[in-house]
Amino acid sequence: MQVSFVKMQGAGNRIVVIDERASGREPPPASVIQRLGSSAEGPGFDQLMWLGPAVDSDHIASYRVFNADGSEVEQCGNGVRCVARLIAGQDGASQLCFESPAGPIAARVLDDQRISVNMGPPQFDPGRIPFVADAQSVSYNLDVDGEIIRVAVLSMGNPHCVLDVDDVHTAPVARLGPLLECHARFPACANVGFMHVRGRDSIELRVYERGVGETLACGTGACAAVVAGQLQGRLDADVTVQLPGGQLMVSWAGAGAPVWLTGDAEWISEGTIEL
């Protein structure tokens, strides 16, 4: 079976969108998604956004998110922006609502370059992240091969672990990333952010993504890092996040408020693929 795809990028995060709203077809098995995620065998992506029909008429589409290793995850901030850009280009809408595995998501098309997405409020309850802990805390100590690492832990629809580093360029992403991603205290694994605070309105960030490895950008990772920095009293409400693939803006008004993620979404290519 052949299906059409569009390949896009948000801050360097490679996103493939397959729109099956009309057919209602279910995604293929993980082995096929793995093949498509490989640039040697398919279009290659960090995340696949599979669009389906919405249940609620107030929403324009539903979506499911898959990593390049075939695993399904709950959310992808850069992917949502790409989906919003694609659909807005088709019907001219400037405000869109989606059904996602993490709940309803709203997006606003600000201009030809920028899209802002309401990522919902962060979750800190260990049971909802999920994270193994006796009680909720601003930060936790994790034993990683005998080394104690101080991290912030929260969910932005998917689990995140954020640690401070003096320099993102020399941060031990390749060593600590996979160890923290699959740490025993993360039952569903986690995205791992390495954050350097440059000032109250600016951070640098590298992210080791669950099921992908290090990527050029991670939208939910940017949100998680800014929330962690705000809870530590180090960041203001509006923060620019510099990632290897580009720049994102994250805004959070505090407890109970949603996190807004703003950034680009650009077309790369399109075609058909055999499933």
**Beginning-to-end CA distance, first to last residue:** 5 Å
The count of β-strands is 18
The CATH superfamily of the largest domain turns out to be Diaminopimelate Epimerase, Chain A, domain 1
- The whole-number mean of residue pLDDT values reads 95
Gyration radius, rounded: 18 Å
**Unreliable segments of 5+ consecutive residues:** none
As a percent range, the share of helical residues equals 10-25%
Strand fraction: 35-45%
CATH architecture of the largest domain: Roll
Q: Biggest sheet, in brief?
A: 18 strands, mixed
Order of helices and strands: EEHEEEHEEEEEEHEEEHEEEE
- Helices, by number, come to 4
- CATH class of the largest domain reads Alpha Beta
How would you describe the shape? Answer: globular
Count of discrete domains:
2
- CATH topology-level fold name of the largest domain: Diaminopimelate Epimerase, Chain A, domain 1
